[in-house]
Write a structure and sequence with these properties.
The protein is of the alpha+beta class. The chain is built from ten helices and twelve strands. The chain has a seven-stranded mixed sheet with strand order 7-10-6-11-8-12-9, with helices on both faces. Helix 1 runs parallel beside helix 3 and helix 7 runs parallel beside helix 9.
Amino acid sequence: MAGSAVPDDAVVVKAPNGDYMIQTVDFFTPLCDDPYLFGQIAAANSLSDVYAMGGTPYTAMNICCFPLSKAGTEILSAILQGGADKVAESGAVPCGGHTVEDAEPKFGLSVTGFVKPEHMTTKDGARPGQRLVLSKPIGTGVLTTAVKRGKLTEREISQAFDGMKTLNARACEAMTKAGVRSATDITGYGLLGHAWEMIRGSGLNFVFEAHKVPLYEAAWEFALDWVFPGGSVANRDWLEGMDAVVWEESVEEAHRGLLTDAQTSGGLLMAWPQEVEVPPEFAVIGYIEEADSPTSGCLKVLG
């Protein structure tokens, strides 16, 4: 029902009872020293794809690569416990999983969820006049890179870690109630990269107001110092190479970097109906307009 024609966040198939079943998988290497926190963030990130489709997580299975002979069971147990606690918070059932010996730790989940057909959201389906609404700040890529380079401590970016481990359940609930039909979660391609997936070939422009995009604490400071990971730089090169983004001259370089910054467990970007009130904890960061032709469309960024 979704996931094959356009690069949606998860695959959706029709279950025998008429509901839609969502299936997704994601895992990655540690971005912090705290194993329990890493498990929480990785699980929240994996569960996010179900929420991005408007669904409810149902089951979750661990996928874990770990150097057990070198690191021992205590660290592994903490990672798995962090993941299990997030799965429990989501209401899904933890169903074991699989672990293999590997030199570098990796952790995530294979998640199954369900959504009513009338509540499913996909990356296509945005309409002119709708607002662009974001449920979490951005800046995790630049901040975690600052930690790796010794410019920040993990304690100093605790706000960003709190955001990364927060489930997108509240955003999913709100967008379902509002009648949102087009959404995605913001992860490795950055805010603009994932937005591009929503409009590619659609005949729509997404217009972003850079100063309205919320940032995690200290993200602006380190963006000014250009402390970006390689993935963020690649995101911007990719978009600009396709002429997918048009920057207003007043948009600062730091903002250009942050809007293409590779995120981990980011929020939902939603095409919000104009007539429906936006919850105060979410940010209205732009709007949708018709492009010059039905097959064109771009990302416009205003200062």
